[in-house]
Amino acid sequence: MMPNTSPSPSGRRAELLAAGAAAVTVVLWASAFVSIRSAGDAYSPGALALGRLLAGALTLGVICLLRREGVPPRSAWRGIALSGLLWFGFYMVALNWGEQQVDAGTAALVVNTGPILIALLGARLLGDPMPPRLLAGMAVSFAGAVTVGLSMSGEGGSSVLGVVLCLLAAVAYAGGVVAQKPALGSASPLQVTTFGCLVGAVLCLPFAGQLVQEAGDAPASATLNMLYLGVFPTALAFTTWAYALSRTTASRMGATTYAAPALVVLMSWLFLGEVPGLLTLVGGVLCLAGVAVSRSRSRAAARGTAPGAVPEPRPEQAGDSVR
C-alpha cells in the first residue's frame, strides 16, 4: 500500500504563502507595463534602468537595516553577483532598449522564451524535474503570450538590433534566475534581492549622467512612474519572487510568469483605456490556462510518488536552509 505523503498543515501553509508571493510578483510585474509606457517616453533605457534600480536599492536597504538582516554569507555571493549582473543590470537595460526597436509581437515572441530557457537551464544545472504537465503548460502559455503580443502590435517594425537585444534580455533573465536559486539556500530572500539590486545599480552607474540630465526635463508623472517601478515591481516584487523561488523549482516559477501578459491586457484596459480585441482575450485565456496546467499535479503525485518518478521538493523541504 502506498504511504500517505500528503503535506502537513505547516507544509500546506508554506505552500499557500509561496503561491501568494508568486501572485504578488506577477501582478506587480504586469503593472510595470503601464509605468514603463509613461516613464519610457521621457527616459532613455539606461537612465530608466538606473533610476529604477536606485529607488529599489534604497527601499530594500532601509528595510534590511530595520530588520537587521546584515550581509549575506560568503557562499551566497556568487549567485547574488551573477543574478545582479545578468537580471537586475543587463536584463533591464537590454529589455528597455530592445522594446524600443521592435513591435510588441516580436518582443512577445523573443522575450517570452525566457521561462523556457529557465526550464532548460534549471534541468541542466539545478537538476529540476521537467514533468509533462509543466512542459505542456509552458507550451500553451507561450502560444498565448505570443498571441497577446501580436494582437496588440501597432504598425511598428522590427530591427535586427531589437531582436538581438530582446533575445539577450531573455537569456540574461534565465541565467539570473538559475544563478539566484542556489544563493537562496544560504541567504534570505530579502538579502538576495537587496544585494542583487545593488549590484545591478552599480553596473548601470555609467548612465548616471543621462539620468540627471533627463530628470531635469522629464514631467513629474514620468519620474513618479520610475520611482514606482523601483519601489513596487523591483523592491517588493523581486523579494516576493525570491521568497517563492526558495520554496519551489526555478522551472515552475518561470512558468508562473506567463500569467503576466493576461494581467497586462486587463490593466491596459482599466488604466489606459485600451479595449482588448477577441484575439487578445483568447491569448490571455491561453496564458492563464497554461499556468494552471504547469502548476497542477497529477493524481498520482497528489496521492504520493509513483514508482520511478522523481518527486518535486515539498515546500518545507525546499525552505529548510532558507533564513
Mean pLDDT: 85
What share of the residues does DSSP label as strand, in percent?
under 5%
Residue windows where pLDDT falls under 50 for at least 5 positions:
300-323
Shape, principal axes of CA atoms: globular
Radius of gyration: 19 Å
Amino-to-carboxy terminus distance: 37 Å
* SSE class: mainly alpha
Percentage of residues in helical conformation: over 70%
Largest sheet entry: none
The SSE string, one letter per element, is HHHHHHHHHHHHHHH
Number of E-state strands: 0
Write a structural description:
The chain has 15 helices and no strands. With 323 residues, the protein is mostly helical.
Q: Layout of helices and strands, plus pairs?
A:
Blueprint: H1 9-39, H2 45-67, H3 77-98, H4 104-111, H5 114-126, H6 132-151, H7 160-183, H8 189-203, H9 208-217, H10 220-245, H11 250-256, H12 260-271, H13 278-295, H14 299-303, H15 315-318
Keywords: Membrane, Transmembrane, Transmembrane helix
Protein name: Drug/metabolite transporter (DMT)-like permease
Domain EamA: 21-148, 161-293
Which labels suit this protein?
323 residues; mainly alpha; 0% strand; globular
Structure summary:
By secondary structure, this protein is mostly helical.
